[in-house]
Amino acid sequence: MQDEAAQDGLRKADDIEQRPAGSGLLNALSDYGASEVAMRRRMRGSMNLGETDLLALRYVIEADAANRPIGPKELGQKLGVTSASMTALIDRLVKSGHVSREPHPSDRRALLLRPAPGSSKEVRGLMDLTHRRMAEIASSLSPEDSKTVADFLQRMRGTVDAIDPTNQD
Fold this sequence. Notes:
Layout: H1 4-18, H2 23-47, H3 51-65, H4 72-79, H5 83-95, E1 99-103, E2 111-115, H6 117-139, H7 143-162
């Protein structure tokens, strides 16, 4: 069964016919996207987490590192999931030992989510290795090339972020 990134990779043949001058760059970008999706799938598999669960854990870890604990409501808004789905997701993360629930210090009705010490270390270990390797490659670029690539990626991001399948004007 092919995932969405793989299907996107198959669609890149259409881009070659439409944009021959940029086809190599677009193919490389598509290949990178597919590789990143596969890397995240391997990471999720090694931690026995689903995609949304890993993203939620990452948000909890980031909030904790910023000394700004996050609650279920805010986490649900970041993930775009309903309250019921958020409860089930948090239950899974607590049961798997990745997250703990703690009482809010000033609102006895609210909870805060904290990463388990082992989870932070595990996720950071996997991500640090990835980021270190990526930083090595990025640092090999000249300042001019780095700016060109960054500008290109920002414009691509803007284009992708602006796509609304419900409004194709």
